Records
---
Amino acid sequence: MIKDIVSNEEVKEFFTNELKRNKNSGTYLFYGSDMSLLMEFALYFAKGLCCESVEGDFCDTCSACKRIDSLSYSDLEVLDNPDGITVDEVRALGYTSSSSAYEGNKKIFIIKDISKMKKEAGNALLKIIEEPNRGSFFILLNTNLNILPTIKSRSILVKIKRRTAQELEVDQFTYSFFRGNNDDIKEYKKLDVDLEEGYSYADIGNAVKVYEEKRDIVSKINVYKGIRDFINNRNYILEIDKIFFAEEITRNTGDRNIMREIIKYTVDVLGDIQGLEERLEMKNMMKAPINMKLFFIDFFLKV
Ligand SMILES: [Zn+2]
């Protein structure tokens, strides 16, 4: 039920009011810094639209609710392309949206990282949301509001705030360790792992390698710990060892998403120590077109 959602009271109120209106179609832009939380809220809203047993809310027990949660509902499509949804993907979406629904009378499209779309894809999406087919609902997710203004102006904006440490029921140390990331903290709570226990920065290569293989929270924690150890000791680490640290990362993963995660985590942790200006400067470095290995060396030499 909507009332059971933890945090973001205004959004819960919006869901209730919006679902009451019984619309035929709609486009929403959910934005906020935690993508995993945006996805969680998108699924709540999708359930609200499709639930078979209650009107204007969701029950979590009917077949539609359960299958939306497991992403196996045939009228729910999630588009997720870390490099940006392509124009072909948008066209395929247009086709699906114009054919009839399998289950109920609504089709839900959740599209992640709208700002990463190229202009052509953005314009194709704009055409679809300008004249939506009956029963089509688009939930666009983005970590900021830097998206095509034409798409923004046709969307209902919904800001999703991060859960607080209190809402996630963890102490401040744990909350900061995970930078408030909703999914990470939930996964961590199922484990018995000591976050204060150290992991040497010299072993970062191994941590990254295991994380790339397993993609689980335990190996992610070791990567974070290795970075934390590097940051804590940064004033005593020789340049040659900083270069080694950077090379160990790029030698053990070719996955750009993992690389982005590592930079983002480092920047966020450092930002707490060095202040906002420094943080922005380092974030801007990420935008430059780059040879990843050289970028990593340059980046960690500056840390
Ligand atoms: Zn239900």
---
Amino acid sequence: MAYLALYRTWRPGTFNEVVGQEQTVTALKNAVRQGKTTHAYLFAGPRGTGKTSMAKILAKGVNCSDLREGEPCNACISCADINNGSFMDVVEIDAASNRGIDEIRDLREKIRIAPAQGKTKVYIIDEVHMLTTEAFNALLKTLEDPPRGVIFILATTESHKIPATIMSRCQIYSFRKLSRQEISKRLQEIAVQSDIELEEEANALIAHRADGGMRDALSILDQIHSYKGSPIRRQDVMDVLGIIDSLFVADLVDKLLNREIGAIITMMDQVLTQGKEIGILARESAYYLRDLLMLKLVGPDQVISGTTGNDRNRLQEQAKRLSQDQILQALKILMDVGEKIRFAESQRFLLEMAFMEVARVWSPRQPREEGISKSQAETPPDRKKPAPTRTGKDAQPTPEQNQWWGKVLARVKEIKIPTHALLSQGQFIGLKDRDLYIGYKKGYRFHKEKMEEKANKELVIQVIEEILGKKVEINFIFLDQDQYNDIIVQKAIELFGADMVEVRD
Ligand SMILES: Nc1ncnc2c1ncn2[C@@H]1O[C@H](COP(=O)(O)OP(=O)(O)O)[C@@H](O)[C@H]1O
Ligand SMILES: [Mg+2]
Ligand SMILES: [Zn+2]
């Protein structure tokens, strides 16, 4: 026997089998029982929430010869034929496939012919928002003058695209996304009846990922089952969906909170050696941050990831250490990078930068100096007078040097934005003979090390040669606190003028 996908095998066959959508179920069941169905329905809601299933149940209901309390019997000839798709008086039209012009035209002619087989003709028009204007007009005419014994059921995921003229002629039912509990329960039932052993944690993760769609949940279960067989554990779900364990992400968040940059880099190595994609790490981290935010905003019940027990406590601990604003900022950083990453070559680098940025945003006391040095780094320094300062290695930038350094930065930015981002976090200390010095603050180890990589370093050397006409050696050094403070004071003087800057020891 041909393999039938789980979601088809488990299409609800009666109103009572439909999960959720209680009001719709009650209303339609009553209408069928009392023989008071109307001639046009619109089912609107997200995909995989039961619209087509409900349409078929309704079609059976109005044709069944052995109704039971408004439920189709699923045994009479009508029910059986509708279930296997051979019932002539139930016509399914998929507006998405050919935009429905021919069918609707056809339909206007055929509609006057009395039902061949059953009592009521049912036209189910799926994705009805895809109809052309022409087809909509034809449909409207039909709805304005509905023949007896015909029911239209229109289904759509995008009800805002349906003309008001059509809407006003239909009884409208909204389908909602299913809750994780609803999905989990159904998954469990189906797993048991299909002889699939589905671990609770695995189930929770599938339900989470299905995002309210029962069809997606069943498709995921199917996919994992055909790949892995039974039993299905949490890890299997993660493998098949390419999910990175939320425990791993939790660790990563701890490292970010503690600003353990080296450890973060190592963790990224791990992800890559496991053959997972950088984009997935970005996505999973964003998911996790979303959970953190939800926890902060609305409390533990709304946390959506597959986290349970210990993970939960950990999430709570982390949430305590961060403000809402900090989480939001981090989320924004990761979502931005998630967008960029898809088209970028240097994916890993971009994500590393994003994590560095998150670590910075999360640092308990973000030093005010960094703000100054950063904004200043964007614009080429243009100093009137060299400020009194003590810089490393006997080098000290002259005004001319600062001027061409500004050009270097601008040129690097033109060629390669990521390199510029790294370079501009460092301070140009000066050029002595052939040695050029760029200083990084201690917390900027990552930037320094990245700049020391050949590709970045060579690029800068090349640009300097282009601008200065001579080849230099570049030395990336760490600034000690004094040097750093001097530079900051100097920057502050440039920004605000010497009078405004008070130097405290
Ligand atoms: N509310 C629901 N209750 C039970 N199963 C559902 C429900 N919604 C969807 N499903 C499952 O998903 C499959 C596809 O559902 P369908 O009714 O075609 O969704 P829609 O038309 O809203 O996209 C069904 O065969 C069934 O297995
Ligand atoms: Mg459908
Ligand atoms: Zn029946």
